[in-house]
Amino acid sequence: MRSFEEDLQALFRHLCIDGIMTNLLKEVKQLKALILGGTGVISRQIVERGLMAGHEVAVFNRGTKRLPFAGDVEWIHGDKSDRAGFAKLMEGRRFDAVIDMISFNETDARSTVETFKHSAGQLIICSSVAVYKRPYRSNPIREDAEELFDNPVFGYAYEKAQMERYLQQVIREGELPVTIIRPSLTYGVGAANLGVLRQNYNIVHRIRSGKPLVMFGDGTTPWSFTFAPDLAKAFVGAIGNKRTFGQAYHATNEEVRVWNDLYLEFGRILGIEPNIVHIPSDLLIRANPGLFAHLYYEKGYSGLMDNAKVKRDIPSFEVAISLNEGLQMMLDWYEAEADKVDADKDALEDRLADLHAQWGRQMDALNV
User: Fold this and answer.
1) Model pTM?
2) Which of 156, 192, 251, 323 has the fewest CB atoms within 10 Å distance of its CB?
3) 31-366 is classed CATH 1.10.238.10
4) Contact of 122 with 179, CB cutoff 8 Å
């Protein structure tokens, strides 16, 4: 297969403008990038955008899912949790950038750093805005104003924060150029995290069936919902970008919404007004800590981020997908291949809505 530069040369020769071609190719640099993951909601978009940018892309994962990307991708199969096996598999390989989408704690990140510190030009690692300690110190939230989460009771945020503390040490010691990107709540094709109960297609099912949808709090917490094709621009824009070395960024949508809008916008697309009932997050977490902890510890606070830093250092990052457009994308995907009702979550949402109705009747009885 011809290289990206060869394709450009052929195009410009055809147009008889070899002089312009020469100048342009001086500015085009094809880099070799490895994505650890590569088939997740965000990482599949990073692969596609990396190919669009002309990079040579390799993907490492366990090989349980193979996606048809719009270009040639090298597939490397293995299990990153097998630390020794992972390091052995990467021996002799060199990459301009390694994008790690599958590290969730310090141990995971340490394995990546130890494996690539002598064979990669840069590590770009996916963290999360969950690492910010609540309540925030700034609004909209700025990276330089916030502290890292320090409460082990919310394991996801705590472990990601511990991972970042380790990476800051790597940055200080100069072992490897590191760029940290912190997504906020991000949706896209393949997502399993949409909705208060992460009920996904159930949202469409319940709106069409006239069933209530449970919202945490009063639904007016400000938020900006991000979609994976936009977020991928930040990761790919960081590849080989020395301005990002040693830096941490959040990269989010900036369309100001509130949480109720998630269901209301689905209703507008479907042409059906949803029935939303509101339950405090401190009660939801008692009903199912594993399912609702993220609401209580993270999403009950404003999710509006200041993107000035990422826009300054990664000019290619721009948000193009509105909430309406993104949810239409999700609906199209659901109806094409993911229109499955999660019966357990549907029953749980029914039960929560019934409890809400009972509380309402009890409150009515007090109004005498």
Assistant:
1) 0.89
2) 192
3) no
4) yes
